[in-house]
Amino acid sequence: MRFSARATPLPPAECDRYVAEAACVAERLGAREVPRSRAEVAAYLAGIRPELRVTPPALEVLRLLRGFGRSRRERAAVRVLTNASIGLLPPWARAELAVRRPSLVRTVWDHPLARAGGRVMVWACGPSPIRGATHARAAAAPRAAGT
Questions:
Q1: Are residues 45 and 88 in the same domain?
Q2: What is this structure's pTM?
């Protein structure tokens, strides 16, 4: 079975299935009261939003990522991944981090470059036994809870 990155968002039912599957993993790792649908995730995030704020350590990590790498090429690669990652944050989080990249730049530059870089990395690294085992496990029929 071949897996590839999706260029389009998952349909709502698949999103809910993904969240429910992730909730099972979280619960097996000891988490409690884990959201099991997109609506539950949205409600949870809305409830904790007033508590979320940028801290000096968060700004320090952003500064570190912006300059990370031993060479110009490494810094450029990290910058592409950092910009694409930051582009996934909600607008309020980008604003609090003082990151102002226009939507058009994120859409036509940051995300396509990061996707292309990811494909190149997968190609350059060759087949991964860990990735193969993970995909095989994900494709297998789900086991009963507690097994």
A1: no
A2: 0.63
